[in-house]
Amino acid sequence: MKPSQSESSNPKQPAARMVVIAIDGTSGSGKSTIAKSLARHYDFVHVDTGAMYRAVTWHCLQHGADCNDAAAVVRAMREMKSDFRLCDGRIVMFINGADPGEALRSEAVTQNVSLVARIPEVRAWLVAQQRELLRFGSLVMEGRDIGSVVFPDTPFKFYVDADPAVRAARRAGDGYADQITRRDQLDSTRKVSPLVVPPGACLVDTGKNTPPQTTALVLAELKRRGL
């Protein structure tokens, strides 16, 4: 059975009025902090696409699929049942009727998610699902290919980065046990939708400011761009 999805609410706005704010960047750069703040400010839906790749990875691990084996991952993905629900202003991906929750932060998922995310079939399916999320309303979507692949036509693009040491400390503080340099290398060199600075994106160095200062800078740029 192919993965499926369902919606838990009607669209907030007519499709012609939908807005997408794309937040791309490296691991631990502060994408989630910015995205959550923007979603609250504009009353948009927050979408963490990284959590979706983690959910697929979690499912594969739960069913004994070797994440180094692309064919095994694709088989496991096609056997799962998924749906996307709007929960407290954010999209949650349910797998076989369950929210993996904190299991997405497990070391096993963290160590394998980049392997799963580089598989073309996984990316193609999830990108299609991410585009469909506009049915829930305007979005603040964070990830590694939002402004370059998922919504390349949005005028509201940002690329977030910080010094590797700063990012590693943040990841540890968030409960993730991954190696920043390894994640950067895997994400930037994969053949399909590698991590790049999207054309037209505003570059944001989060290592030089507090979260409120960074959010204020992004809000000012969004205003300048007409939002």
How would you describe this structure to a colleague?
The chain contains 9 helices and 7 strands; from the N terminus they run βαβααββααβαβααβα. It is α/β, with parallel strands linked by helices and about 230 residues long. Helix 2 (about 50-60) packs across helix 4. It has one domain: P-loop containing nucleotide triphosphate hydrolases (Rossmann fold). It has helices at about 30-40, 50-60, 70-80, 105-115, 120-130, 145-150, 165-175, 180-190, 210-225; strands at about 20-25, 45-50, 80-85, 90-95, 140-145, 155-160, 200-205. The strands form 2 sheets. The chain has a 5-stranded parallel sheet. A hairpin with a 2-residue loop joins strand 3 (about 80-85) and strand 4 (about 90-95). The model is unreliable at about 5-15 (pLDDT under 50).
The sequence of SSEs as H and E is EHEHHEEHHEHEHHEH
Considering DSSP H and I runs of 4 or more, what fraction of the residues is helical?
40-55%
Q: State Rg.
A: 17 Å
Principal-axes geometry comes out as: globular
Any idea of the CATH class?
Answer: Alpha Beta
From the 3D coordinates, which CATH architecture would you assign? Answer: 3-Layer(aba) Sandwich
Give a count of the beta strands, DSSP E runs of length 2 or more.
Answer: 7
CATH superfamily: P-loop containing nucleotide triphosphate hydrolases
- Note the main sheet: 5 strands, parallel
What number of domains? 1
Content-based structural category: alpha/beta
**Largest beta sheet: strand ordering:** 2-5-1-6-7
CATH topology: Rossmann fold
Distance between the termini: 41 Å
